[in-house]
């Protein structure tokens, strides 16, 4: 059983699809693939994503150990840096395969 957002899934593919299918999640993971980024940098990189939505999706990804939030206190302020966990890095080849499949099999209207 897989619990994603209070929904129980029997199928691991369906559970992962629920995470990856959320708005902005794939873009967040893609932006973090080679980088450690602070919140503001990530928000600028994921154009159109609001602060509230970015916070919600980062919380989801952190909860499922896909993204790590490295918090440090410097001069009485908390500085957060986000990066992909080992599990998050393992999603990249899956996403690349999805991109390849989509480019070969789906019609894209531009």
TrEMBL record:
Residues 11-110 form the HTH hxlR-type domain. Gene3D superfamilies: Winged helix-like DNA-binding domain superfamily/Winged helix DNA-binding domain. The keyword Kinase does not apply. Pfam families: HxlR. The keyword Cell membrane does not apply. Keywords: DNA-binding, Transcription, Transcription regulation. One of its GO terms (molecular function) is DNA binding. PANTHER family: TRANSCRIPTIONAL REGULATOR (PTHR33204:SF29), TRANSCRIPTIONAL REGULATOR, MARR FAMILY (PTHR33204). This is Putative HTH-type transcriptional regulator YybR. It comes from bioreactor metagenome. The lineage of its organism: unclassified sequences, metagenomes, ecological metagenomes. The gene is yybR_6.
């Amino acid at each position: 059983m897989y619990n994603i957002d209070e929904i129980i899934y029997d199928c691991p593919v369906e559970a992962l699809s629920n995470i990856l299918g959320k708005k902005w999640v794939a873009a967040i993971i893609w932006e973090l693939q080679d980088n450690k980024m602070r919140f503001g940098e990530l928000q600028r990189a994921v154009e159109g994503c609001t602060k509230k939505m970015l916070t919600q999706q980062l919380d989801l990804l952190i909860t499922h150990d896909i993204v790590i939030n490295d918090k440090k206190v410097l001069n009485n302020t908390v500085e957060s840096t986000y990066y992909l966990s080992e599990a998050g890095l393992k999603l990249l080849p899956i996403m690349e395969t999805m991109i390849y499949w989509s480019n070969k099999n789906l019609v894209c209207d531009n």
